[in-house]
């Protein structure tokens, strides 16, 4: 019983780590594809529309990764 639980926990941690790495890679690709600096636009210029778009993109990628892992 304890062996199965440990295996499930290890698998969950591995899948979570893979998902985070894929998400970070997708975010970096999006940052490089856009013609401007995302951090400067959101933080310094207070571009709310871009922040909302980035948040929606993040949720979309997370849903795709979660369904692929599941």
What does this structure look like?
This protein is mainly alpha-helical. The chain has a domain at 37-70. It contains 3 helices and no strands. Helix 1 (2-33) runs antiparallel to helix 3. The longest helix has 32 residues, at 2-33. The protein is elongated, with a radius of gyration of 17 Å. The model has no long low-confidence stretch (mean pLDDT 87).
Mean pLDDT reading: 87
The coarse overall form would be elongated
Order of helices and strands: HHH
Structural class: mainly alpha
What's the number of extended β-strand segments? 0
Question: Ranges with pLDDT <50 over ≥5 residues?
Answer: none
Distance between the termini: 23 Å
Helix content: over 70%
Spatial extent as radius of gyration = 17 Å
Binned strand content: under 5%
The largest sheet, given as strand count, sense and whether it forms a barrel, is:
none
- Output the number of helix runs: 3
């Amino acid at each position: 019983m304890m062996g199965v639980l440990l295996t499930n926990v290890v698998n969950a941690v591995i899948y979570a780590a893979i998902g985070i790495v894929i998400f970070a890679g997708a975010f970096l690709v999006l940052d490089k594809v856009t013609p401007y600096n995302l951090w400067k636009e959101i933080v310094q210029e207070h571009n709310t529309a871009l922040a909302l778009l980035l948040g929606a993109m993040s949720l979309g990628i997370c849903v795709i990764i979660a369904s692929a892992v599941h």
